[in-house]
Amino acid sequence: MNIYDIAKEAGVSIATVSRVMNDSPKVSEKTKKKVKEIIERSEYTPNIFAQGLGLNTMHTIGVLVPRISDAYMSSVVAFLEEYLHDKGYGCILGCSGYSRAEKEAHVSMMLSKHIDALILVGSTYAGTGTIEEETDYIRKAASKTPVFLINGLVNGENVYCTASNDYQAAYDVTIKLIENGRRRIAFLTDSHSYSANQKRMGYETALTYSNIPIDKALQLFVKNDIYQARDLLLSRPDHSFDSVFATDDGLAVGAVKYAGEKGLRIPEDMEIVGYNNSSLCICSNPELTSVDNCISKVCSDTVERLLKVLDKKEGVSAHNIVGCSIARRNTTSF
Amino acid sequence: MNIYDIAKEAGVSIATVSRVMNDSPKVSEKTKKKVKEIIERSEYTPNIFAQGLGLNTMHTIGVLVPRISDAYMSSVVAFLEEYLHDKGYGCILGCSGYSRAEKEAHVSMMLSKHIDALILVGSTYAGTGTIEEETDYIRKAASKTPVFLINGLVNGENVYCTASNDYQAAYDVTIKLIENGRRRIAFLTDSHSYSANQKRMGYETALTYSNIPIDKALQLFVKNDIYQARDLLLSRPDHSFDSVFATDDGLAVGAVKYAGEKGLRIPEDMEIVGYNNSSLCICSNPELTSVDNCISKVCSDTVERLLKVLDKKEGVSAHNIVGCSIARRNTTSF
DNA sequence: ACTCATAATGAAACCTCTTACATTTTCACT
DNA sequence: AGTGAAAATGTAAGAGGTTTCATTATGAGT
After folding, report:
1. Which domain holds residue B266?
2. Are A175 and A333 in contact (CB under 8 A)?
3. Are residues B11 and B35 in the same domain?
4. Does residue B114 share a domain with residue B177?
């Protein structure tokens, strides 16, 4: 069943059928109605390949995340898919893991599928090699299709970034903890990403601003795993920290488990703040205070900017920042 | 940059270039080497649309889930994407929600993108209308492309199902609780899906087998939300149940919160079992005993069967069952 | 050197759509 | 009725691959 069959049955040329399919104004109402009826009846759908060959688009966006089973990432994908689908775009998903090689492999696979744009979520930097090396594949991809980063920052032609204001949020959280009398705030992270660095800078700035010396021994790096986070904290000397600011809710849950193990009361003896305000927060006991980095807004902004770029509209800025808020629950006393 | 450019530069015909691209044996080593070099150097990739037009495939599989932000679903998608990517297939993701109309819309969008097969995850039945009505869109889709259900059951030409043995697992869990002296086991679910019904049947069979009357008042239905599950349990009379078997970890966490609210000790006063063995289990406090429905195996089986079907191999059975196990943690005393 | 089977290559058809341009139809106005 | 502009429709040329079939090149066996 192709456009010729429809044309023959309707007694018109294929050009007319094509015009009807694309809602062109230069077809008489009478013809339009007749052709539409036949299209309807025979459940004809145009061949996407032939269409793509002509139009050079398939209305598909590539979405690449490091790990979809992560609560934060899956939320991001959920929003992106929803917004894109609303606008008639399909979503090719890739889960790359954190290695550069895997990311590159996924990106080139997506490019070969002729996506209209590429969205990269988080983790643009794996911590091996220089930033330039690490992000070169992004600029390379951007030479073929517009690239949109979510919570990442890369400068380059055709690269657009949308991020939550992690610097500010981290600063705010740290100040809150200091106001609560905390002086030895552990900074717990699992990433060298742009976001993680922003958080670290906000944290350090707040300490400096409050005349608290920065103690690098309080900045802990661990794989994103609840038990590993717990064990790392357990390996630290008792009382070496009085609160934990984690760059991810999973790590914060690890801190909760640490406190349980040590018999520390939360939040009296140990305050804990997570990040992403994910589903883990209310699953945790006590429920976790966390930074709400407003995924929904970040995603809707990204899609909005993406559509503008595809529309060849001018004036889409390279960078875009979205504010965060703090979701207060029971692991802090603010 | 197209096949003609390569052909011209190499001084061969486009047919030869095409053969080189597809690793055809009927090209001399010398020519192959020369052409490959030029392809490499000019970073030529064949146009997917032209290729699709000829081959009628884009090596893309549609994956439709109701809710990707669900820990279980995102795990399933993670495995599917990994296995499919390994085999050179891309993944078009759709998040449909639970309504039939949305599912149909997503399926037809995917079909219009010319997927090679469609994988539907869970929830084939939304509870409105008869099973036949609810699943008709699946058979319709199956007339255009092979359909693979994960933890769903629909009979039809070109429909292949892979499911975990939820009936058996539910039976086993219920027997364990009974062996622990529980007599009033609440069955908490959020779905009318095939899986949920299998679990219910296993639960009821175990009760009957143990000469415990089935009390419909103990079978509770609630939206998949931790707080709603907690509140529903709080609304029941005290001591009306002594344990909870939930068909999803989120609901089980709701039960944990209920017990906390009521001051019940877990597992002494209240045993709780979840389902899916998701990341919520270790996040919960106490950590949740849960049925491990072996997502990895279900997904690898699905992909394996899918590849066989695409390969036109015979003998792919319509149904395939994978065994479950119980991940014992701290909300039960077995 | 001459066959002849086989390997290597090329020409052209085909896949199904979009669209620029050409042609035909319509119809208001004289 | 005749004219001419505007509207409707059709023709044919791409878009960029794959593949069949025909043709040419190769080289082993005599």
Report:
1. 166-294
2. no
3. yes
4. no
Alpha carbons B161 and B168: distance in angstroms, whole number: 17
Nearest CA in chain B to A50: B53
Nearest-5° angle of CA B94, CA B99, CA B102? 45
Query: Domain for residue B329, yes or no?
Result: no
Taking the CA of residue A324 as centre, how many other CA atoms within 13 Å lie in the half-sphere pointing to its CB? 26
> Going by DSSP bridges, is the β-strand pair B159-164/B319-322 parallel, antiparallel, or unpaired?
parallel
- Angular region, A28: left φ>0, alpha ψ -120 to 50, beta rest: beta
Q: Has residue A330 been placed in a domain?
A: no
Same domain for A310 and A245:
no
Residues A176 and A285 reside in one and the same domain: yes
Any strand C atom closer than 7 Å to A283 CB: no
The C-alpha atoms of residue A173 and residue A183 are separated, in whole angstroms, by 13
Q: Is residue B311 part of a domain?
A: yes
Q: Which residues of B touch A253 (CB under 8 A)?
A: 283
**Same-domain status, A71 and A136:** yes
- Work out the mean pLDDT of chain B and round it to a whole number: 95
At residue B107, the 3 state secondary structure works out as helix
CB A222 within 8 A of CB A229: yes
- The reply to whether B41 and B76 lie within a common domain is no
Cβ atoms of A114 and A92 closer than 8 Å? no
Whether B48 CB is under 7 Å from strand C: no
Does residue A123 surpass a pLDDT of 90? no
Is B111 in contact with A77 (Cβ distance < 8 A)? no
The protein residue nearest D12 (Cα–C1') is A15
Strand C: which bases are under 7 Å from protein Cβ? 7-12, 14-20
| CA distances for A320 relative to A305, B94, B221, angstroms | 10, 27, 43
Task: Pull the structure tokens for residue A268.
Answer: 């009296």
| Tokens of residue B85, six digits | 């990517």
- Quote the pTM value: 0.95
- What secondary structure letter does DSSP report for A113? T
Nearest alpha-carbon partner for A85 in B5, B68, B267 = B68
Q: Which of A49, A91, A284 sits opposite B53 (nearest CB)?
A: A49
Mean pLDDT of B64-90: 96
For the cut 80, the answer to whether the pLDDT of residue B78 exceeds it is yes
Q: Are residues B160 and B303 in the same domain?
A: yes
CATH of the domain at A250: 3.40.50.2300
Provide the angle, in degrees to the nearest 10, between the axes of the packed helices A14-21 and A3-10. 110
Is the alpha carbon torsion for A181, A186, A188, A192 positive or negative? positive
Task: Please state the domain count of chain A.
Answer: 3
Same-domain check for residues B160 and B300: yes
B117 and B148 Cβ atoms separated by less than 8 Å: yes
Which whole-number Å values give the CA distances from A319 to A41, A72, A73, in the listed order? 48, 21, 21
The structure tokens listed for B144 are: 């255009």
pLDDT above 90 coverage of chain B, percent? 91
- More confident position, B45 or A127: B45
Q: For A36 and D7, how far is CA from C1' in angstroms?
A: 20
Alpha helix segments (H runs only) across chain B: 3-10, 14-21, 29-41, 48-55, 71-86, 100-112, 131-142, 166-179, 194-209, 226-234, 249-262, 280-283, 295-310
CATH of the domain at B13: 1.10.260.40
Residue of A71, A85, A113 lying closest to B90 (CB–CB)? A113
Nearest-angstrom CA–CA distance, A321 and B16: 51
B331 found inside a domain: no
The residue whose two tokens read 């069967």 is: B305
